[in-house]
Amino acid sequence: MGLEFDSFTLAASTTDLSEEPAAREFADAIEFRMDLASEPVAALEAYDERVASTPDAMPILATNRAAWEGGEATDDGRLETLAAATRFDAVEAIDIELESLRAGATAATDAREAARERDVSVVVSAHDFEATPRAVEMRETLTEACEYGDVGKLAVTATDREDALAVLTVTHQLTAAGHDVATMSMGEAGSHTRAVAPVYGSRIGYAPVVPERATAPGQYDLETLAELVERLQADGPSTA
Ligand SMILES: O=C1C[C@@](O)(C(=O)O)C[C@@H](O)[C@@H]1O
User: Fold this and answer.
1) Catalytic center at which residues (predicted)?
2) What topology does CATH give the domain 9-235?
3) What pLDDT, in 10s, does the model give residues 69-85?
C-alpha cells in the first residue's frame, strides 16, 4: 500500500522535485504540484530513477489542481496526466477534486481506478478560497469525500477565529466518527489550524519547502510547521 495516512503526514509542497533532499529532514512526503510544474511527467520519471539509488527519498502525493479549484491546470487532459502519475513507483498517493468525482467525469473515475489498481492512495479534496462554509456543509463535504477516497480533505478560508474553530470542531467530529480527514483553514486567521488540526485528527499538513513559494495563503514554512506539529503532539494529552 502507498502512503497510508494512518497517522499525521507532513507533505512538503513543491513544483520542483529536486527540492526533496532539503525537505527530507522535516517532511514525510512530497506534494508534487504537477499543475505548477513545467514538465511534470518527465520530472516524475527522473525522480523515480533517482529514488532507485536513494532508498530514503520521500514518497510523492501527486496533485494536478484544476484552475477552477485554485490551481493552474486546464481540464484538457488534467486527470489523464494525474492517472499517468500513478505508474511511477515514487507516487504513493494522488489528490482528486471531489467536484470531479461528484460530476461523474469518466477521467476522474479512471484516475481513481488507476490508483486503486496500483495500490496508490487517493485523497479527495475540496477547497473554498473565499469563506468557511457552515459546519453542517463542511461535515457533508468531508463525509462525501471520505466515501470516494482514502482521505477526505477540506481547505477553507478563515476570516476570524470563529471560522478557524469551526474547522477544528468538524475535524474532531469526523475523526471521532472514524473518518480519515485532512483539514486546514487558509488565510492568516486560519494559519494556526495548520498546527492545531492534527491534534484533532487531521492526517495531512502542507507546507512549502521554500517559504516564498507557498501553495496556499497562510501556510507556515516547512520547518516551522514540522516543529509546531511535533511540539503539540508530544506535549498534549492523549488524543482520546
Ligand atoms: O489542497 C491543498 C492544501 C493547500 O491548499 C493548503 O491550504 O495547504 C495546499 C495545496 O498545495 C494542497 O494541494
Assistant:
1) 127, 153
2) TIM Barrel (3.20.20)
3) 999 999 999 999 999 99
φ, ψ at 61 (rounded to 5°): -105, 115
Express each pLDDT in 184-197 by its tens digit: 999 999 999 999 99
The ligand 1 atom at the shortest distance from the C-alpha of residue 70 is 5
With left for phi above 0 and alpha for psi between -120 and 50, is residue 70 left, alpha or beta? left
Nearest CA to ligand 1 atom 4: 216
215: annotated binding-site residue? Answer: yes
Give me ligand 1 centre to Cα 87, in Å.
23
Q: Is 163 in contact with 156 (CB distance < 8 Å)?
A: yes
ipTM comes to 0.97
Query: Residue 29: what are its φ and ψ, rounded to 5°?
Result: -155, 165
Nine cell digits for residue 66: 484544476
Q: Based on the residue annotation, tell me whether 192 is a catalytic residue of this protein.
A: no
Cell, residue 56 = 530514503
From first CA to last CA, the distance across the chain in angstroms is 27
pTM over 0.80: yes
Domains in the chain: boundaries: 9-235
